[in-house]
Specification:
alpha+beta, nine-stranded mixed β-sheet, three-stranded antiparallel β-sheet
Length: about 575
């Protein structure tokens, strides 16, 4: 750091201006960053400033021979100006630097001497998606200037507009696969992730608007209960810690089972074919997919439809269960051909839940049939109307419909008789299977407990979808063009990687999974301009960062984050212009 003198010509002649400058090494070579513009500074005051320039040879000689000058401050006129949200933006950029995401974007998106570097615009999009998700238009119309990003990135607010943000989306999408590879490696090194277990799940997100020109926008099974809207489906692969490796976007009407082969091959082409275990829920299971996984020598843990549980009724009655934790037991059973292992799982909590559901549906059917029998005895009801009523009743209570045997007949007077009974063998099976489910795997060297725990990690993929949809507002999609939709999902993906990185940092620091809590707490930190009016009439302006409260300071300490006390504005755009 050093003091630099600039000579400027004015109406009154030549004037010297002073600035405090810091040298820094960038990808473009050495650059000088102005820490503070000092303007015209009296000789005595320069002497005081010179004392702050330490460790730099010969800098003190610029002001040699003068004593420090102290100024008087009017305490009644001390105020703060330009309060901006600082903590979240600073933390997000720190994590991006830790992941090498900023340097990656600079190396890939630095296409010539753009007025605003595209890598910085991409960072603006990701940080806003993480902290205050909104539309690109909202960012351009004031959202950006309410944060500390103009000072932290060096891009003035008047240079950020919706057109530039949209164009950055288009450029960012080109690097999707490279971004996924880079983040997989950087996060893996940072946290020592092994990627031995890959969790695969799918979700959907719906459109606001017709999206007529987007071939991927189709109607299908909506996880958001918005069957009235077009949608796209998103396939996500995460590690056992919930860190995403990659994703793909499919048409909204594509069935889950039709995506398995494409996703597995894509991940293997991208990261190599290793000794990984794939975990998928029962919605991905089909005989073709199982054969595909076996043919490639791939290992898997899959959920199974409950209908297959009936084949293992004897094993459910037998002893030999292993206790995983209180209220949960598992049992390994070999398949008839010996190629696979089926894991029977029995949960006490789930049993209570299933029993309550069955009892409610059973009581509903019983009440409805009793009422129908009474109505038939009092009136001459037509057979087709009675059968229609029975069908509706059973359709509303599907979880217990197999328990009842219902018969109808026409009486001599033209009315209808209804007789019903309960199937005790069905009741016995229902009571035995309550709280039970089954997994299948070709991993034979793991214990039943390890297999169950691995499968339960699918909750990490579900959590990723929940955070992306609710906190990062992946849904609904307002973009209409296919590439813009894909770019929107990519920005959400990058924001989630930052979220999950913070989550793992919290976990390693003994703070639990508290990324949301940290972001909420650090949002209270602001950047302000402190204005001090001196007796001479010249105001002193200092850009400062508010001090964190003790609990937040302890939190930052545990995360090994050092909050700056002051902010020196960058001027990246002006340098490039």
């Amino acid at each position: 750091m050093y003091l630099r003198r600039t000579n400027a010509k004015t109406k009154d002649g030549s004037v010297n201006y002073w600035a405090l400058v810091e040298s820094e090494r960038t990808a473009r070579g050495p650059r000088q960053r102005t820490v503070a513009y000092l303007g015209e500074v009296a000789e005595a005051l320069r002497s005081g400033m010179a004392e702050t320039v330490t460790g730099i040879p010969h800098q003190g000689e610029l002001f040699k021979g003068s004593e420090p000058e102290w100024v008087e401050i009017d305490t009644k006129r001390v105020r703060v100006e330009r309060a901006r949200s600082f903590g979240g933006s600073w933390l997000a950029l720190e994590i991006m630097t830790e992941l090498g995401l900023d340097s990656f974007l600079e190396s890939k998106m630095d296409e010539g001497r753009a007025e605003v570097p595209w890598n910085l615009v991409a960072q603006i999009l990701v940080v806003h998606r993480l902290l205050n998700p909104s539309s690109e238009l909202s960012i351009a119309e004031g959202g950006y200037e309410k944060t500390a990003l103009p000072e932290l990135l060096g891009v003035p607010g008047d240079r950020v507009n919706d057109d530039r943000l949209y164009r950055a989306l288009d450029r960012l999408l080109k690097h999707k696969e490279e971004l996924e590879r880079h983040l997989k490696d950087s996060v893996g090194k940072l946290f020592g992730l092994t990627y031995d277990l890959l969790l695969y799940d799918m979700t959907s997100t719906f459109f606001e608007g017709q999206a007529d020109k987007n071939p991927l926008a189709q109607r299908g099974y909506s996880r958001d209960n918005r069957g009235d809207c077009k949608q796209v489906t998103i396939a996500l692969v995460v590690s056992r810690e919930g860190m995403p490796l990659g994703y793909e976007v499919f048409a909204g009407n594509k069935a889950d089972v039709k995506t398995v082969e494409e996703i597995v091959v894509t991940i293997e082409d991208r990261y190599g074919k290793a000794d990984r275990v794939w975990a998928m829920d029962r919605g991905m299971v089909s005989q073709d997919n199982i054969e595909f996984l076996k043919e490639g020598g791939r290992r898997y843990i899959l959920g199974t439809p409950k209908s297959q549980l009936k084949s293992y009724e004897p094993q459910l009655k037998e002893q030999g269960w292993s206790l995983v934790r209180e209220g949960l037991e598992v049992k390994k059973c070999l398949s008839p051909d010996g190629d696979e292992t089926f894991i029977l799982c029995r949960s006490a909590d789930r049993k209570l839940k299933d029993k309550a559901i069955h009892d409610r549906f059973e009581a509903g059917i019983e009440k409805g049939l009793t009422k129908l029998v009474e109505s038939c005895s009092k009136r001459k009801l037509k057979l087709k109307n009675v059968e229609r009523s029975i069908g509706k009743l059973l359709g509303r209570n599907t979880r217990a419909e197999h328990l009842f045997d219902v018969e109808t007949s026409v009486r001599s007077d033209g009315g209808t008789d209804v007789r019903w009974s309960k199937k005790e063998e069905v009741r016995a099976w229902s009571e035995l299977s309550e709280g039970c489910y089954m997994l299948r795997t070709n991993v034979n060297d793991w214990t039943g407990e390890d297999l169950w725990k691995a499968y339960m990690q699918l909750s990490q993929a579900e959590a990723a979808f929940r955070i992306s949809k609710n906190d990062l507002r992946l849904r609904p999609v307002w973009h209409q063009k296919e590439d813009r939709v894909k770019a929107h999902i990519l920005v959400c993906f990058l924001a989630y990687v930052i979220w999950k990185t913070l989550d793992l940092k919290c976990r390693n620091a003994g703070l639990g999974d508290s990324a949301r809590k940290v972001l909420d707490e650090i949002a209270s930190i602001q950047m302000v301009d402190v204005v001090l009016h001196t007796k001479s009439g010249i105001p002193i302006r200092r850009r400062c960062v508010s001090a964190p409260e003790p609990p937040l300071a302890l939190l930052l300490h545990k995360l090994k984050l050092v909050l700056p006390q002051t902010v020196s504005p960058k001027h990246v755009v002006e340098k490039l212009g």
